[in-house]
Amino acid sequence: MLRRKRNLIPFVFLILLFLSTITAAWWLPVSPSLMDSSLRLMPLSSEYWFGTDHFGRDIFGQTIISARVSLLVGFTVAVLSTVLGTITGLIAGYYKKLDSIIMRIIDGMLAFPSLLLALALVAALGGSVTNIIIALTFSFWPVMTRVVRSSVLQVKNIQYVEAAKTSGVKDPVILSRYILPNVLSPIIVQGTFIFARSILAEAALSFLGVGVEPSIPTWGNMLQEAQIYITIAPWFSIFPGIFIVLTVLSLNLLGDGLRDAFDPYAKGKRKKKKRLIKRQ
Amino acid sequence: MVLEVKNLKAHIDTPDGVVKAVDGVSFTIEPGETIGIVGESGSGKSVLAHSIMQLNPKPPTFYPQGEIVFEGKKLLQLKEKELQKIRGNEIAMVYQDPMSSLNPVFKIGDQLIEAILTHHHMPKRKARQRAIELLTDVGIPDPEKRFDAYPHQFSGGMRQRVLIAIALACNPKILIADEPTTALDVTIQAQILELMKRIQEKYGTAIIIISHDLGVIAQMAEKVLVMYSGRIVEKGNVEDIFYHTSMPYTWSLLRSLPRIDSETRNRLLSIEGQPPNLVHPPSGCNFHPRCPFATEQCKTMYPQLTKRSGDHYAACILSELEFKEAKKRLENREQEGRQKHV
Amino acid sequence: MSEALLEIQDLNMHFPIKQGVFQRTTNDVKAVNGVNFTLNKGETLGIVGESGCGKSTLARTIVGLLKPTSGDILFEGKSILQYNKKELHELRRDIQMVYQDPYTSLNPRMRAGDIIAAPLKAFNQTNNLKKRVMELMELVGLKADDYNKLPHQFSGGQRQRIGIARALALNPKLIILDEPVSALDVSVQAQVINLLEDLQEELGLTYLFIAHDLSVIRHISDKVGVMYLGKIMELSDSESLYKNARHPYTNALLSAIPLPYPDKEKKRERIVLKGELPSPSHPPSGCVFHTRCPFATEFCKGNVPTLDGKNSSSHYVSCFYPMENKQGEFPRQ
């Protein structure tokens, strides 16, 4: 899958972003938390690549270390909602009796726009990284449940599941060895999209001022602080904005690429096309 | 001669390599004749049929060699627009799966009228009349009423009748039937085969029928092509193929059929091994790994189709006499083996 | 004397059709409708019928995947319908199944060896697991290095061998074969049928062989039951059925099979059935076959025939006007 340029570029971007943000302390030329009131809202320069903010801090460094919380929130939410959604989806899809109970609850949760639901939850719980993760997981896992359930409904009617049943294989084994491996691809794809959407959602919540504590640098917090300076120091809001867009775009492209890679039909077609182009 | 296929090759580009689906096939069809193409899955019989209509997706399919001549026109060289004038109009096709070959959201009658109006200009009222006539011809009871029905209201057999009616809409010169009864039950299959014969008598259409079922071929065809791994391994009149079999593959296939008419319940004589790998076919004669008579020579040399008698050709290095003796020896050995077993 | 392994007594399997907003049951699909037969140890009973006749539903009911509407299934003299969950699980050791489609009946993400080992693991017979799997693979004619291959690396016939090895793993007494060869090529079909026969002889298995093809059934069955619309029309020992089929439907099926004799085939007289299969939710009154039967009378419309032996203890037919000897129906070479 990574042999394709369309998939390789977003992958490399995400890896670089991840590595640079965890090693930021060692290589950043200017400490991102260093305040210098003489350097307030400076435009781009060779020393301050992205300019400085209203406290005179380096925006480049801020943007890089902000990725920590954004990626952390996104990844944790993606993993948690994948785990929760997969378990509930497997159960709902496989056991007819539990299906109506689980799915009515899920339907109820899906009736709220996910961002609004998260907003209400954060408002109730109070803003912190943990609470944001809880709130976002809560609003995203129903989507995963639906995806998993519909895949399970298809797979469980394929004959090898019935064959396993008549061989005496017990339900937990059927679910883990026969159904789960065959629904894994939509799960991974959906998980990637949830990753992207929760980064966006975290930024949106922080921007609205109900997200992560303002003292912790995140892209959302940066945007929130930058909004009043947008006319005099546009770079302050543009760069964190660009990083959000690039990260989300990369994740979405990666998700699309994964989906194609898991679809045997699309794969064959593409390879054939390539070869024919070579021939000509 | 209505159609001539000359040394046709149709190859398919796949991720694993080039599949030689059709590899040097030649035959002709006379008007009003029925030709049967028999072979197992992967033998290339469907690709061959689709090549005549130029219906193989291109790419991945390509035609490195050969010619298809229909009434003096070389089909491989025609432009898509000219091909469309021939497709459905002069050469029509009936498919295996009557469930997915009809559009589920349109009425049967409208699909039929569309088939007629695609190639002929006539007032809609007249087209409707023709459509009802066709439905009557293919034995749909109550055609006036069934005209407004949707495909899902028809059973499999009825849908296949409708597809035959659509294929006949423009009175084609050739009807290609690709496994037309494989998805149907035997009693319905008997009805459809009966219908195809009746239609041929009435319209004088040449029929190419493709099947894996030797019984269907025996019942329908006058001439038979036996395909194995992209090549014709035996061709001739139906009697020659079934009664004077000259190619070990055809012979083994006929022998391995379960029969309802055998005297006692006896053991089937199977063909050993698996069908050949399409990307890396065996060297020499494609059938040699499974052939009970194979010699060292068969591994290296591919036998050409050679004349046996009249129009009967077979691709085997054994002459008719040698083949007869080899069969006798094998049968004796089998007899001994059976006696020992008892 | 052979003893009964499986007895089916007046078995009914009706599926409710639910309609409307309140999912009220408006009608039933009578997939299996009053079926009786006995299968003795070591025998093969062939069940033959066209699509929609209920033969696969019958199979699923016997392996316990469906709970029948009424009737009884006796396995070794005990009613399996009274079994609790644990007993049903134990029953799986004795009754195994082989499926029609070798492409969908194997988990594409499991290796051949693991597929065959699955039933053994399910019953915790994990001593010498690999050795046992190897034994099974050899038994069905697979090579040792096939152990780690994935299903898509096999051809159809080899996949069906994997399916058979899986069914044999627990040393079952009864194997239900649901159209085991109909998805295979002719040249491979014979291999699989021969394999099944060899296994039966070697292991003393009992088969319930379901197929739509009377000629395949001919080569493997001791007894044959012909099903139509959920009912058995004719039940007989194989020899007698093929020599002297008495039900008009059986005769129609036999005469519809195209034989590989071109000259005789073109002249052959057939019983071509009228019309189409009626819907199993509204089966015809009286004899269910009367709508398509060439010999039906008014009497057939109002009265239901029973499966009756008349003057034979091994040939039962459910018809008011069974056909008599018609030797030489099939062209012979």
Any overview of this molecule?
The complex is a heterotrimer of chains A (280), B (342) and C (333). Chain A is mainly α. In chain A, 75% of the residues lie in helices and 0% in strands. Chain B has two domains: 1-90 and 172-342, P-loop containing nucleotide triphosphate hydrolases (Rossmann fold, 3-Layer(aba) Sandwich), CATH 3.40.50; 99-169, no CATH class. In chain B, α3 crosses α4, α3 runs parallel beside α6 (156-168) and α4 packs across α6. The longest helix of chain B is centred in the C-terminal third of the chain and has 22 residues, at 320-341. Chain B is globular. Chain C has one domain (4-317): P-loop containing nucleotide triphosphate hydrolases (Rossmann fold), CATH 3.40.50.300. Chain C is 31% helix and 23% strand. Chain C contains eleven helices and eleven strands. Chain C has helices at residues 55-62, 85-94, 112-122, 129-139, 156-168, 186-203, 214-218, 238-243, 248-256, 262-267, 298-302, and strands spanning 4-19, 24-40, 44-48, 70-75, 78-79, 95-98, 174-178, 206-211, 223-228, 231-237, 315-317. In chain C, α6 (186-203) links the parallel β7 (174-178) and β8. In chain C, α5 packs parallel to α6. The two termini of chain C are 38 Å apart. In chain C, 50% of the residues are buried. Chains B and C meet through α7, α8, α9 and α10 of B and α6, α7, α8, α9 and α10 of C.
The unreliable regions of chain B are none
Distance between the termini of chain B: 55 Å
Round the mean pLDDT of chain C to the nearest integer and report it. 86
Secondary-structure element order of chain C, N to C: EEEHEEHEHHHEHEHEEHHHHE
Report the CATH C-level class of the largest domain in chain B. Alpha Beta
The shape of chain C, in one word, is globular
Q: Name the beta content range of chain B.
A: 15-25%
β-strand amount of chain C: 15-25%
Mean pLDDT over the full residue set of chain B: 85
Series of H and E elements of chain B: EEEHEEHEHHHHEHEHEEHHHEEH
CATH homologous superfamily of chain C?
A: P-loop containing nucleotide triphosphate hydrolases
User: How many structural units, i.e. domains of chain C?
Assistant: 1
How many DSSP helices of chain B?
Answer: 12
Shape of chain B: globular
In CATH, what is the class of chain C?
Alpha Beta
Q: Which fold name is given in CATH as the topology of chain C?
A: Rossmann fold
Helix content of chain C: 25-40%
Structural class of chain B comes to alpha/beta
Can you name the CATH architecture of the largest domain in chain B? 3-Layer(aba) Sandwich
